[in-house]
Specification:
heterodimer, A: alpha+beta, Glutaredoxin, 2 domains, 5-stranded mixed sheet, 41% helix, elongated, B: alpha/beta, Rossmann fold, Ubiquitin-like (UB roll), 16 strands, 16% strand
């Protein structure tokens, strides 16, 4: 999938907390993914300027870190909206009308799948299976799983 | 006597309100000043009944299905409330099952090591601690257990290979990157009986001489991650992990790692790359991971369900497990029934159950009430089956003979509104999205396939374009390094073979 590379450089970037996280986790076997998860969780995304810091701590090239960050869907390159709706579009949910739910959510939130609304309120993303396939359609809204979901219930959660 | 009340703390149950129901029950207990205790369990796997609340009675647990917070008070007033299902164990869907792996799921508090032991847990590990490494692996070989992740490779043979490989360090890796649509058994087990998986991994460590394990869980399972994390801590406290396992002087340590949203990392070599901190790109085989796996060391990499089957095999003996099943498919298979189905859930039965029994007897047909048109078995890389083939028994070899696979045991039901050309297109689109990019047929072929399917769907020269997709599928099947490219043709070709009318119609 081509991911739009929107890189946020407008804010100030402090490398110190990133270096701290990397230092703290670098003793693990295969520390790069845990470090990237930690950065992504703490800051909401992995800033472009965090890459050379992590590379330095792990004694990797910046290209190696860049390659890993860009490979995995989870690592964001820019902050997400205040609410993140990950809606499942895999087969079991398709069988229960996931495509219709997605277009209803696109209308309700005024975004296309994979985008963040202009007011920064909501990011709508596809996900391929949440393991809730007997209670489809499913979505993860701000980290919480919902089953037998409809657009109204999703909107109510985001409206909170 | 204290009234015990059970509510699942399982992600699927929570997704339809079990958390709110549990809160309401706690509030009701306090309001009425009752001598009662709320226990959070895993799910029984009767997922269409969730939230399923159970009250202990002298005769067994009485269940109440599809409870919402507003109904809770009425359950306390009237034990014969209309939501009552009677004794949960007597519900035919559950009663007819042969639960070995899921024997405790939905019954015990998943984080109580005491309850785990009271219900038969740790018996397998205790036996293993008295056995030689070789004998443990041979028990698993004799049980006939095959990899439940999808490939169906004999688990014991894998263990034997790792045991025989000389090395200063070996690893046990649990593949909990359950990415197949229509599957949730790994998640349910990790949330409902996590000590079983840990016990299986410790036994694997003893069998092959590995003292370090990793559980790699997909990030799409936040609840399972949290549960496993707490279970690992409790296991350390209870000497199920650490320096002196059950006082037997053996050492085994376990670490949890989280995936990052890449389906391909369910492929074993890609998972190992990811654990090592690299792009999840597939490695060529040989060398097998059993010889040179994680960090180049001999590695057992098994699916959650394979590892979770092991404690039963050790506790009850290889023959006990092998006596379930048919042909070369031994033991039980947790089938996951999903999609457009009235009664979706987990069905653990010996191999040999027919698709028809799964879909009709258990599932009760579609949720929409329309006729079943197709089922996809074995995840996004599995075949689409028409009703004419529903008498096929669930068995590795029989499914392969009919150009399908059982995979990780997911069965996704579609009603007659499904457009099979679109499903074929989706299979190729999914391959394009999730391809690791290492080999050309998968990386490029999938995208060309989507484009060609679009032409077929638009009614553009359907005969020629269908032939082109078939040709492309042959290249994907024969020219890809791993199962993603190699098996994407399965849903595409089965859709074309069994539902040709959807590929010849102009829109």
């Amino acid at each position: 999938m081509t991911k739009a590379l929107k890189i946020t450089l407008s804010t100030d970037f402090d490398p110190a907390p990133v270096r701290d996280l990397a230092q703290r986790l670098k003793g693990l076997d295969g520390p790069l993914l845990p470090i990237l998860h930690a950065v992504n969780d703490q800051f909401g995304y992995v800033d472009e300027r965090a890459l050379p810091v992590i590379a330095d701590v792990l004694n990797l090239t910046r290209a190696e870190v860049q390659g890993v960050v860009s490979f995995y869907h989870d690592f964001r390159r820019s902050p997400a909206g205040r609410h993140v709706v990950k809606v499942c579009r895999a087969e079991a949910c398709q069988a229960m009308g996931a495509e219709r739910l997605i277009s209803e959510l696109e209308t309700a939130f005024g975004v296309k799948l994979g985008e963040t609304s202009k007011d920064g309120r909501v990011t709508l993303e596809p996900v391929y299976c949440l393991g809730n396939c007997a209670l489809s359609p499913a979505a993860l809204i701000d980290g919480k799983l919902y089953g037998r979901l409809n657009a109204a219930r999703a909107q109510a959660q985001v409206g909170k | 006597m204290t009234q015990l009340i059970y509510v699942p703390d399982d992600a699927a149950a929570l997704s339809v309100g079990a958390g709110e129901v549990a809160q309401a029950i706690s509030a009701e207990i306090a309001r009425r000043g009752l001598d009662a205790k709320l226990i959070r369990t895993g799910s029984r796997g009767l997922l269409w009944l969730e939230p399923l609340v159970e009250f202990a009675t002298p005769g067994g647990r009485i269940g109440y299905g599809n409870v919402d917070a507003a109904t809770v008070s009425a359950l306390f007033d009237d034990p014969a409330h209309t939501r009552s299902l009677g004794l949960v164990e007597e519900i035919p869907y559950l009663k007819s099952q042969q639960r070995l792996t899921f024997a405790r799921c939905g019954i015990i508090d998943p984080l109580s090591l005491d309850e785990y032991q009271t219900h038969g847990g740790l018996a397998g590990l205790r036996r293993a601690l008295e056995m030689t490494c070789t004998d443990i692996a041979e028990q698993v070989v004799e049980s006939g257990l095959r990899g439940r992740g999808g490939a169906g490779f004999p688990t014991g043979i894998k263990w034997r290979t790792v045991a025989a490989a000389p090395a200063d360090q070996k690893y046990i890796v649990c593949n909990a990157d359950e990415g197949d649509s229509g599957t949730f058994a790994d998640r349910m087990l990790m949330e409902g009986d996590p000590f079983l998986l840990i016990e299986g991994m410790v036994i694997a460590g003893l069998a092959v001489g590995a003292d370090k394990g990793f559980v790699y869980i997909r990030s799409e399972y936040p609840h399972a991650i949290a549960k496993m994390r707490r279970a690992i801590q409790a296991a350390h406290k209870g000497q199920l992990l650490g320096r002196n396992i059950l006082g037997g002087g053996k050492y085994f340590d376990l670490e949890l790692r989280v995936g990052a949203g890449a389906y391909i990392c369910g492929e074993e070599t890609s998972l190992l790359e990811s654990l090592e901190g690299r792009r999840g790109q597939v490695r060529p085989k040989p060398p097998l991971p059993a010889i040179a796996g994680l960090f180049g060391k001999p590695t057992v990499i098994n699916n959650v369900l394979s590892l979770a089957a092991v404690p039963t095999i050790l506790a009850q003996g290889a023959a006990f497990y092998r006596d379930f099943g048919m042909g070369r498919s031994r033991g039980t298979m947790p089938v996951q029934l999903a999609g457009n189905v009235r009664r979706g859930g987990l069905i653990e039965r010996a191999f040999g159950l027919s698709l028809r029994e799964i879909i009709e007897t258990y599932g009760g047909g579609t949720a929409s009430g329309r006729p079943v048109r197709a089922v996809q078995v074995g995840g996004p890389l599995g075949a689409y089956w028409p009703p004419a083939l529903f008498d096929t028994p669930f068995d590795y070899e029989t499914f392969a003979e009919k150009s399908g696979m059982i995979g990780h045991g997911g069965v996704v039901v579609f009603d007659d509104s499904v457009d099979m050309a679109r499903q074929a297109r989706f299979a190729l689109e999914f391959c394009a999205i999730e391809s690791c990019g290492k080999c050309t047929p998968c990386r490029i072929g999938s995208t060309r396939g989507v484009e060609t399917m679009d032409r077929i769907i638009q009614g553009e020269r359907p005969v020629e374009n269908t032939a082109l997709v078939r040709d492309l599928c042959e290249i994907l099947r024969d020219g890809s390094l791993c199962a993603l490219g190699g098996l994407t043709p399965m849903p595409v070709l089965s859709a074309m073979d069994h539902f040709p009318e959807d590929f010849s119609r102009a829109e």
